[in-house]
Amino acid sequence: MLTSFGFGQPWWLMLLPLLGYWFWRYGGPAGTAAILHSTTAPLMRLGVRRTGGPGRILRSVRLLAMGLLVLAMARPRIPQGEMHDPTKGIDIMLTCDVSGSMDTRDFSLGAEKITRREALTRAISEFVDARTSDRIGMIGFAKHTYLLSPLTVDGNWIKEVLKLVELKNDGTAIGDGMIAGVNKLQESADRSKVMIVVTDGMNNSGVNPLDAADYAREKGVRVYTLEIMNLRGIKTASALKSPLSHVAQKTGGQYFQAADTGALTQIYRQIDRMEKHEIDASHHQLYHELALWLVLPGLGLILFEWIAAQTFWMRLP
Fold first, then answer.
1. Are 77 and 289 in contact (CB under 8 A)?
2. Lowest mean pLDDT among 124-138, 269-283, 302-316
3. What range defines the domain where residue 24 resides?
4. How many angstroms separate the CA atoms of 187 and 181, rounded?
5. Distance CA 118, CA 96 (A)
6. FRET label pair with 183: which of 2, 46, 210, 239, CA 20 to 30 Å apart?
7. What is the tally of structural domains in the chain?
8. Can you tell me whether residue 77 is helix, strand or coil?
9. Does pLDDT of 38 surpass 70?
10. CA separation for the pair 140, 167 (Å, rounded)
11. Structure confidence at residue 90 (pLDDT)
12. DSSP structure class, residue 168
């Protein structure tokens, strides 16, 4: 706790040396009161300067009170956490292929063979963990589209939901999935919107992905497209011809190809880095302010000094 302690307005602390000078200059040993008397002999003992007494105590009380008030003006505080600003984060829709081919076991994790869906789930999990300030949703598509998760800050649910989906062998409607994702993103008008479309097949049902890209651009949604394919199918020429490449180009996103678990994970990391600038100002620091704990004792000491000076420690000039 002490390592995080600080002051919100530390320039007020510059008054403390002035208080120290004031006490040194005017807070010396208090003199005795002077009164008229017919002879000074009985009063000789009063001529000895006292090193303490009410005068010195009252000056010390005043110094302490003023010191506490100066410290209070400097706003001592301890960080408590972060307050997220809902207008600064971004909304991300993960639009994922849930056709039967996603259970093809041609990806590797070490020496183990895993399915494309398992590899995608691992990449999404890492991506979600890095996006704590954003809302993330998920749309699944085969021949039909499925709302797997609305926009949420519950990253644990997003990481699990794709594992629970029953894959379909009835088609691949990429354009329909994009339209559904854009429509869900429209539920929040004041946030930046991003969609990541992942598929391992070509569109063979529903809306043309290029028409869906026009709709996404019109609604202000940036689309990143990721195509899972066999390593032998990854070629520069095929990337340029891919409809998903044109989808990304139309909406201001980027197009990627992945043929293994490592590439899939790296692509999501790259997308995460490209979108990080959106949330640079997405939070404010919360503090536990300690000034009141200094103001009240300071005012109490001032009140004590005034009462003491007017009553039991009252001094004659």
1. yes
2. 269-283
3. 2-81+285-310
4. 11
5. 13
6. 239
7. 2
8. strand
9. no
10. 10
11. 87
12. B
Name the amino acid, one letter, at 30: A
- For residues 119 and 202, state if they share a domain: yes
pLDDT at 212 over 90: yes
Q: Please write the tens of the pLDDT for every residue from 44-70.
A: 555 444 445 667 777 788 888 888 888
At residue 238, the 3 state secondary structure works out as helix
Answering whether pTM is above 0.90, one says no
Is residue 90 located within the same domain as residue 48? no
pLDDT interval class at 282 (50, 70, 90): very low
To the nearest whole number, what is the mean pLDDT of the chain? Answer: 81
- Does one domain contain both 130 and 68? no
Distance CA 175, CA 171 (A): 12
C-alpha span between 52 and 68 (Å, rounded): 23
Backbone angles phi, psi at 230, to 5 degrees: -65, 145
Q: Please list the residues that pair with 284 across neighbouring strands.
A: 83
Q: How far apart are the first and last CA of the chain?
A: 49
Residues 125 and 246 in one domain: yes
Tell whether 61 is covered by a domain. Answer: yes
DSSP state of 94: E
The candidate with the shortest Cα–Cα distance to 74, out of 303, 290, 297, is: 290
The pLDDT of residue 4 is 67
Per-residue tokens: 199? 């598929």
